[in-house]
């Protein structure tokens, strides 16, 4: 176990949480703070959380022209709000290098993202427009199948069959090619097992699971099994263990803790290597565990990783180094 104090170690880290939802409609209180938000600037400062991926969450609707148009309007509006956070002490970043520079200068770094490729509709050209608006990763699906791919959790209320495409659709394959070409990370969280494995095989660049956990420790359809973890590692990808209690341990066993989260990180590190695992909260989108209920409590996660026996260097990789390295690979592949 590292002999560096938790507080000193935490202060030294480039801590990067790769999945946080933005409340919508926008409440305009990110800078001043609000009791009903898990993430705002004051809480980020108190918790020493230095970089975040803020996701424009697009709820899955009907696979119709009207549904796609509504999603397209929403995603542009949400990315506009995220981009508008640029200002004193906050930097909206489009590259790994800019993220590091912002943090080194004492700013909070924000990387915009999209949750649910439903926003693309049936037009792969929209990917480049979304990248131009700042998005640096996009989950292919949310709960419910869309025109791109099958999701891990079908939606009966949307008349989803168990499988719609058998993984990726032809359109989904085009979208991945566009994401690779413009330097946008392919995010396989929320996708079905077949979709995930096909995306890893198809993508020219490594993929990310921005908010998923280990299925061997908690048998939830949103988690990745050992074969999926192995495949992810072989491609150079990263899985970001998330603070969603039901993904960390069965609900019947109570609310998960930061030690449960650290146990999933340790399991994945032992299985596929510490270079392939990171951390996310899913705050303001359902994420909340004992010891990490909002951004202000982030130091507790570092302490839990120390209790698992990770070294300072390994914790630095887990907390942000691995994800930034992955983003650099995607940038180089696009270039």
Explain the overall architecture:
This protein is an alpha/beta fold. The chain has a single domain (6-334), classed as Alpha-Beta Barrel (TIM Barrel). It contains twelve helices and nine strands. It has helices at residues 6-12, 41-47, 65-83, 96-104, 126-132, 170-182, 193-202, 226-234, 245-248, 258-272, 299-307, 312-334; strands spanning 16-21, 51-57, 90-92, 108-115, 137-139, 185-187, 208-209, 238-242, 277-280. The strands form two sheets. Strands 1, 2, 3, 4, 5 and 6 form a six-stranded parallel β-sheet that branches. A three-stranded parallel β-sheet has the order 7-8-9. Helix 1 (6-12) packs across helix 11 (299-307) and helix 10 crosses helix 11 (299-307). The chain starts with 5 loop residues before the first helix and ends with a helix. The mean pLDDT is 97.
